[in-house]
Write a structure and sequence with these properties.
four-stranded mixed sheet; mainly beta; four-stranded antiparallel sheet; 0% helix; elongated
Amino acid sequence: MGSEWIRDYLQVEDDVLALTVAGNQFTVEGNAHLEWECDTFGLKHVFVNGRVGEVYLEPVANDACRTNENKAGRGPWLAPFSVTGRFDGGRPDALEVHLEGQFIRGDGPRGGAYTRQEL
């Protein structure tokens, strides 16, 4: 995964997710597109569907920099991120991670970036 933000006007770079699980913790790392340089990624919601855990992430707007005076801040930007969580009450049989947003493209069920790992 990259460690620096890259302005990617034509979105030639792919949105990528990687999932690692160790014990009762998991980490999602990735590179994905944001609209502005000050935006971030956040947890949208978590579901347990039978024995499958589903984690949904999405871009989070930061209105502080989304101004006409900051035209250079508008992207899209390819940005690295990391999200860490833990399983309470036991591990599921599988974990899915979905990342959806205006500039995010991929092979997920709803078009966003997606990864699944059998545990």
